[in-house]
Specification:
The structure holds two protein chains of two kinds.
Chain A (H helix, E strand, L loop, with lengths): L1 H24 L6 H20 L9 H12 L2 E2 L5 H5 L6 H14 L16 H7 L3 E2 L11 H7 L1 E11 L11 H6 L11 E10 L3 E9 L16 E9 L4 E12 L27 E4 L9 E9 L3 E12 L1 E8 L5 E8 L8 H6 L3 E14 L2 E12 L1 E3 L15 E13 L2 E10 L4 E12 L2 E10 L20 E11 L4 E12 L10 E15 L2 E15 L10 E18 L2 E14 L5 E12 L6 E12 L6 E2 L13 E2 L2 E14 L2 E12 L16 E12 L1
Parallel strand pairs in A: 1-2, 12-15
Antiparallel strand pairs in A: 3-4, 3-32, 4-5, 5-6, 6-7, 7-8, 7-9, 9-10, 10-13, 11-12, 13-14, 14-16, 16-17, 17-18, 18-19, 19-20, 20-21, 21-22, 22-23, 23-24, 24-25, 25-26, 26-27, 27-30, 28-29, 30-31, 31-32
Chain B lengths: L1 H16 L9 H5 L27 E9 L2 E15 L2 E12 L2 E14 L3 E14 L4 E15 L4 E8 L5 E3 L4 E2 L3 E9 L4 E10 L4 E12 L2 E8 L4 E9 L3 E10 L3 E11 L2
Antiparallel strand pairs in B: 1-2, 1-16, 2-3, 3-4, 4-5, 5-6, 6-7, 7-10, 8-9, 10-11, 11-12, 12-13, 13-14, 14-15, 15-16
Classes of the chains: A mainly beta, B mainly beta.
């Protein structure tokens, strides 16, 4: 009842909002430039996101910000740093190196098309980066006053609301007696998600932001959430080419080397973009996203010159954990013991709230990096401390995982380009004496052929909570392997990428009760006959060992599990304003000795965008059929700006979504999204508190963006 | 212990390496993980005889491979190739194993051009398996043949079939020599970069893939890299080519069994 009422209210307010905005718009003039900008940036993000294999919610916020920023303030290729070019995520190390070599040899670029003559640059790359770069005579940075900063700075405000229309078990009516008996049977709050984000930026130099989020089921401005949102994040960030190069107070991320010692936030691993397996570090970044765990809270500063840079950081925040006991020790100091970390960020039930901010996690450390244009070497030290005893109930397989009060990790990373070879790597050691190393080479054999090879070896006892590096498992521990990838530009229209990864786990893993090995192959063939037509075929085969549950014996024996994916994807401009995208994907999943489990996904996308027209639209209709959850298929979905999803399609049914963007006037955008899963083979979706007693699940999203 | 290891290795190598069907030969081929169906080389005599058709001078070579550090698992190959007018003939010898288990074969190859772009070749081979003690020996013959077609300046396609008539080694359990079909391409990206890829299928078996890359880094040095499935191997190789002599070393890596080093010496007449 309560829910139904809520929905009506929402719809009513939504309709009113639309009306108001329509009126506001009446006078405004559509800017052609804005539409072109959005189209370009979204397309770039899609190129990157398409390469990723799976993951429910991804955070491309930083990337979006960067691309938006560079769209406004194009990188001057005659005066830029390798870092700036890297943060576009559109150039390879050799292309960056090639540019600097070209300038060194022939002097400043006179015009942008000179890029065609730069080694390792091709037409495709140039077109991709063109909106973000420019060629001007180099000029000195002007001094700016605080007044100018506030006058010239940009404000960006996002408000988002989303809800599921079907009633979920956690919000269903329940008798007070039953609830009193089982308080965790229902969510405390309402079923919508609310999100707000404000950010002020002055170029790349100053950034201030606040992000707030209420997850579905959490209370809002009442009960357990008197302060409003469940999650708040804020930062103040400064960057300049002075002695203090970067500084941040509040929430931030740090990325160094290959991510073996310290890397928080987004990173690319194995993907169809085979060469992207190498990490390029960013250093300090402000944090503006909603993952409630993967950031640092405190302060960080980088000082130094062009070559030698020193970063120091301190972070301390409360994190969720499952407390098992609190004991008073002799000297009256309270010592808490926890059994597990809670990473979901949900605080919807009394049980979940009990775990909220249970313990304090402190990180601090330092990084010293020496950079030249051809390479860098960096030393990172990271210390982590908890104000509780960590006593996780570890099993035989994960007995080497972190399970104490503190840890220290120290690592050395390097990257060096010699002619057409870029060598990179990192070696790292955790407090318990375990080592981990990753080493690789990127080689531009020919302007048309680039290869990458990476060798990794992570000891089973290696422990680092802030590592995010190239890995097949979930953490860089108990793994060794060789990865080789290549990118081949066969001619103007045909491109092929491929990789092979062979890996070994010398200790047991989750659901694998013996040392095991596996392999992963991917090949993709792209055909792009013209700018508006693209076609690709992708094949992936991955084999890993997993316990054979079907064997009727007491000993669990791991047997190989093979998963093959076949994908056909086309996209073309059917009309100057209409883009059609189609995909068919087949997955074959089989454990040795078991029947094949099949999955199939077919979808059609329609994207409508018209210059000078305020409404753009993206539609999908998908049909899927999978024998099991094992045979699920992931596919990237277009969403409201700054929200990304690559959901898993499984079971049998259909999926529909429509995302509409309405540009009300300059600086005011409104998004509406409706998405619906419909299942043909079941009457009940999900389980527990998320259970829906209907064969469908529909979600609405409304987002408003104001820029001024 | 050593004998157990040997038996395990033998079982593995027999099933997954199919020595008869894919005789290891030539450091160059092994450096690119055997993805050489479309290569042109003296050692094509053991991979795809059509690759011999453009040989213009006499050449001969010897190849030695050790598997996983076990001296009993040593492969020795010899190849001799001689052009006679527009045709090429060759002799190949391959032996593998030790006193109590030895597989050997001797082949006579013939290759020629058929027009500007098409080459064909074939080979007849005599096989012998010797088992120690009272088990005796078993003999048989195989035929094999293939073609190579230069599609354009950069790309060539090739295919090869080994033992299509399924020669039997023994009536017992109708033990036969495996039959294999391979097809692949070579892509000469530039004078420096050569890319190879092929698929192969053992009759009644699954499809495997082999890929390789040869990089002519500087004058006499070649660097080679390969990867493939069934068997799942990575390979690495170096080659030094002077006027008359080339030395090719290679190593391939199998996750469970380890590393196999290889070496070949090939002489080319001026």
């Amino acid at each position: 009842m309560r829910n139904k009422l809520g929905r009506h209210t929402v719809l009513k307010w939504g309709a009113l909002l639309v009306l108001v905005l329509v009126v506001i718009r009446a006078q405004s003039q559509e800017s052609r430039d804005e539409i072109v900008r959005q189209r370009i940036i979204e397309q770039r993000i899609e190129i990157i996101a398409e390469g990723l294999e799976e993951g429910d919610e991804l955070d491309f916020t930083t990337l979006f910000d960067d691309l938006n920023y560079y769209y406004d303030r194009k990188i001057n290729l005659n005066r830029c740093s390798p870092e700036e070019l890297r943060s576009l995520y559109l150039l390879t190390e050799f292309q960056i190196q090639g540019l600097f070599d070209h300038i060194e040899k022939y002097g400043q670029l006179k015009e942008i098309w000179e890029l065609q003559a730069v080694k390792n640059w091709d037409q495709y790359t140039i077109l991709n980066v063109l909106p973000f770069v420019t060629v001007k005579p180099p000029s000195e940075l002007e001094r700016v006053t605080l007044k100018e900063i506030f006058k010239e700075g940009k404000h960006d405000l996002f408000l988002r609301y989303q809800d599921v229309l079907e009633e979920r078990q956690g919000y269903a009516p329940i008798s007070p007696e039953e609830l009193a008996e089982n308080p965790n049977r229902r969510y405390l709050g309402s079923s919508y998600r609310a999100y707000a984000r404000y950010r002020f930026t002055y170029g790349r130099n100053i950034s201030f932001g606040i992000t707030a989020e209420k997850d579905p089921g959490e209370e809002f401005f009442k009960g357990t959430q008197k302060q409003g949102f469940d999650y708040y994040s804020s930062h103040l960030y400064y960057e300049n080419n002075t002695f203090v190069r970067r500084a941040v107070v509040g929430d931030y991320q740090l990325q160094f080397g290959q991510g073996l010692t310290l890397w928080s936030g987004l990173a690319f691993g194995k993907s169809a973009d085979a060469l992207n397996a190498k990490r390029t570090e960013i250093g300090i970044r402000p944090y503006t996203s909603v993952d409630e765990n993967l950031f640092l809270r405190g302060g960080a500063v980088t000082i130094g010159g062009e070559r030698l840079q020193w970063t120091n950081f301190y972070s301390s925040k409360h994190i969720d954990a499952n407390i098992v006991s609190t004991s008073d020790s002799v000297d009256t100091e309270q010592l808490t013991t926890i059994s597990s970390f809670q990473l979901s960020g949900f605080h919807r039930t009394p049980g979940e709230l009990q775990d909220k901010d249970a313990i304090r996690e402190t990180y601090y450390g330092s990084n010293l990096t020496y950079k030249t244009r051809r390479g860098q070497i960096g030393l990172t030290a990271l210390i982590s401390e908890y104000d509780a005893n960590i006593n996780r109930n570890l099993q035989l397989y994960n007995q080497f995982e972190f399970n104490s009060k503190s840890n220290q990790v120290i690592g050395l990373n390097y990257s060096r380009t010699i002619k057409n070879v870029n060598l990179f790597g990192e070696v790292s050691r955790s407090e318990n004496g375990a080592w981990a190393t990753i080493n690789g080479a990127l080689v531009a054999l020919d302007p048309r052929v680039s290869m990458i090879a990476i060798y990794r070896n992570y000891a089973r006892k290696f422990q680092n909570q802030l590592a995010n590096t190239f890995v097949e498992g979930t953490r860089p521990a108990n793994e060794s392997g060789i990865y080789v990838g290549g990118q081949f530009k066969i001619n103007r229209q045909w491109t092929a990428t491929t990789y092979a990864d062979f890996f070994r786990f010398r200790w047991l893993r989750f659901q694998t009760d013996a040392p095991s090995a596996g392999r992963d192959f991917l090949t993709q063939l792209n055909y792009k006959p013209s700018r508006n037509k693209e076609f690709y075929l992708r094949y992936r085969s991955r084999t890993r060992d997993r316990n054979a549950g079907f064997l009727d014996v007491d000993i669990t024996t791991p047997l190989p599990v093979n998963q093959q994916n076949f994908r056909i994807n086309t996209s073309f401009l059917a009309h100057p304003n209409i883009k059609l995208k189609s995909r068919a994907e087949l997955v074959l999943f089989q454990q040795e000795g078991q029947p094949i489990e099949r999955g199939f996904l077919l979808y059609q996308d329609l994207v409508f965008k018209k210059i000078q027209f305020p409404v753009s639209m993206s539609l999908r209709y998908a049909l899927f059929y999978t024998d099991s959850y094992n045979a699920r298929i992931y596919a990237y979905e277009s969403d409201v700006l700054y929200a990304f999803s690559i959901p898993a399609y499984f079971s049998r049914g259909s999926r529909f979504y429509v995302t509409m963007k309405y540009k009300v006037k300059r600086g005011v955008d409104l998004w509406l999204r409706y998405a619906r899963w419909h299942y043909d083979d079941r009457q009940v979706i999900s389980s527990g508190l998320e259970q829906i007693n209907a064969p469908h699940r529909s979600e609405i999203k409304v987002q408003l963006r104001l820029r001024f | 212990m050593r004998s157990i290891l040997l038996i395990i290795a033998l079982l593995f190598t027999q099933s997954i390496f199919a020595q008869d069907a894919f005789p290891s030969s030539g450091g160059r081929f092994e450096g690119v993980n055997g993805a050489g169906v479309a290569l042109q080389d003296t050692w094509s005599i053991m991979q795809n005889q059509a690759g011999l058709a453009r040989q213009e001078q006499f050449s001969a070579g010897a190849f030695l491979q050790n598997r996983f550090g076990l001296s009993e698992l040593t492969v020795l190959s010899l190849a001799v190739v001689k052009p006679i007018q527009n045709q090429v003939v060759g002799l190949s010898i391959n032996t593998y194993g030790f006193q109590n288990y030895r597989r050997s074969r001797v082949g006579l190859a013939y290759a020629r051009k058929l027009g500007e772009d098409l080459d064909v070749g074939l080979q007849m081979a005599f096989h012998q398996v010797q088992l120690g003690g009272t088990y005796g020996t078993s003999n048989t013959f195989t035929v094999e043949g293939g073609f190579r077609y230069q599609l354009n300046e950069e790309i060539a396609v090739a295919a090869h079939i080994f033992n299509p008539n399924r020669s039997q080694l023994s009536d017992f359990n109708s033990e036969s020599i495996p039959s294999v079909i391979r097809t692949g391409i070579s892509w000469e990206v530039s004078k420096k970069v050569l890319i190879l890829a092929e698929v192969h299928q053992v009759f009644d078996g699954k499809v495997g893939v082999r890929t390789g890359l040869e990089y002519h880094a500087v004058e006499p040095l070649y660097i080679r890299l390969g990867a493939g499935s069934r068997p799942d191997l990575f390979s690495f190789g170096l080659g030094y080519a002077w006027n008359r002599l080339s030395i090719d070393v290679a190593a391939s890596y199998e996750q469970i069994l380890g590393v196999q080093p290889m070496l070949s010496l090939t002489y080319h007449a001026e």
